[in-house]
Amino acid sequence: MIWNETAECRSREEMRRLQGERLRETVERVYHNTPFYRRKMQEMGLMPDDIETIDDIVKLPFTTKQDLRDNYPYGLFAVPMSEIIRLHASSGTTGNPTVVGYTRHDLSVWSEMIARCLSAYGATRDDIFHVAYGYGLFTGGLGLHYGVETLGGTVIPASSGNTLKQIQLLRDFGATAIACTPSYALFLGEAIAAAGVAMKDIKLRIGIFGAEPWTENMRREIEAKLGIKAYNIYGLSEIMGPGVSHECECQCGSHIIEDHFFAEIIDPDTLQQQPHGTTGELAFTTLTKEGLPLLRYRTKDLCSLDESPCACGRTTARMSRIIGRSDDMLIIRGVNVFPSQIESVILGVEECEPHYLLVVNRVNNLDTLEVQIEVREDFFSDELSKMLDLRKKIGHRIQSVLGIAADVKLVEPRSIPRSEGKAKRVIDNRKFE
Ligand code: ADP
Ligand code: ZN
User: Fold this and answer.
1) In terms of C-beta density within 10 A (0-12 exposed, 13-18 middle, 19 or more buried), how is residue 45 classed?
2) For the chain (length 433 residues), average pLDDT per consecutive 10?
3) Is 227 exposed, middle or buried (0-12, 13-18, 19+ CB in 10 A)?
4) Which helix H or strand E contains 191, and what residues bound it?
5) Which distant-in-sequence residues (6+ apart) come within 8 Å of 297 by Cβ?
6) What is the pLDDT of residue 322?
7) Other CB atoms closer than 10 Å to residue 218's CB: what's the count?
8) Are 323 and 299 a contacting pair, CB within 8 Å?
9) Domain limits of the chain?
10) Would you tell me which of 41, 53, 166, 261 could form a disulfide with 46, CB atoms 3.0–4.6 Å apart?
């Protein structure tokens, strides 16, 4: 089912014309309302009039997460705070989180986007949606929530955590669709079996999974375990939240909501725009955003784009699965983790050497994070209680910075392999290809 045929089935030429028009309006708006962009454009000798068609996008400056941090909290907002009716913030970052703001219009666009996604998955107003993404600053919970309401489906705002309760709700309320991270879906599949609940008592038929990378193998496993069709949903809070792209019944790439976001692939080193089909870093320009319009936002997500027609009838370009990152960000249990955050904790502990290794695994479908840290020679002690105290202290600090627990392992000085070039700080044993 197509929710908004006009928007989703335009000819490519018509789409590019609309994108060009909306880009011009966006550039005009940020030039006048966002000092950050005015300054950047002035430095480049660029005036809003220099942007005529969507092809002119390559003239515009890029935006990075660092720019958002430098302008914390509201510096990049393009409207007065009286127009902002909701804030969200990106998960798990040290110091300043990335704050995003929405006008009433932004929220209505977002809800409509999600309604489009849900329709593409074959969901209708007769479906009951169990939303197990976290509700709060994270965009997942509330994002999906209002999209379900726009579709006219029934929403169960379960939020995350307490798996036994989730299973009870799934069984008693008869949800037919579930939204959560793909790793939680796998975990839930096993937990349902372990709880002795028969699959015939679970009515799920559609899964809406995103917020972290996953694979075709995981899809097959989730579909088999939960007896559903599992669909990808992609998004990021800076651009809107979940729903920036979504799969359709063909499950062959995720359709981008192109009337609201322009996607391009760039080479992360040269920053040159790349032709469709090339794998590179995805950058988005918002075309209708009011609260936080962003030009060429570098997602750091690696993927490719495909403009060929899709069997579902939609003409919007599709993005491949995310195959990696052009920076060192890890997503652990749905939380964005930068190794530098852990490094800053370790550097602040005098008993430790600045040598560490992060080991990420997936055990029973849940991510685990082990942090191995070398202890200084003079502090390394045979006294167990001393070492346990130190371990606890570091564990608490990491938890408070990352928002997730880590298994801290104190190791002897010089036991972590040194590298000649760039230090290898992360071993990620999860497979995303
Ligand atoms: P969160 O609060 O979800 O962590 P962010 O907006 O900070 O939200 O995270 C967005 C990032 O999550 C994306 O840039 C991407 O790396 C990852 N992500 C989101 N959805 C998907 C998906 N479907 N597949 C792969 N990665 C995803
Ligand atoms: Zn399609």
Assistant:
1) exposed
2) 97 98 98 98 98 98 95 97 96 71 98 98 98 96 98 97 97 98 93 95 98 91 96 98 98 98 97 97 98 98 97 98 92 88 89 92 91 92 88 94 92 86 84 64
3) middle
4) helix 182-194
5) 62, 63, 64, 238, 239, 283, 284, 285, 286
6) 94
7) 21
8) no
9) 81-327, 335-428
10) 41
Pocket test of ligand 1: the residue of 331, 341, 428 to mutate, having most ligand atoms within 8 Å of its CB, is 331
| Alpha carbons 254 and 274: distance in angstroms, whole number | 19
Tokens read off for 408:
């801290």
Look at the chain and count its residues: 433
How is domain 335-428 classified at the CATH fold level?
GMP Synthetase; Chain A, domain 3 (3.30.300)
Name residues contacting ligand 1 (CB within 6 A).
90-91, 138-139, 210-213, 232-237, 299, 301, 322, 331, 336
CATH code for residues 81-327: 3.40.50.12780
For residue 249 the two structure tokens come to 């019944």
| Count of C-beta atoms within a 10 Å radius of residue 269 | 9
Ligand 1 atom with minimal separation from the 139 CA:
2
Which residues have C-beta under 5 Å from ligand 2, the single-atom ion?
248, 250, 310, 312, 314
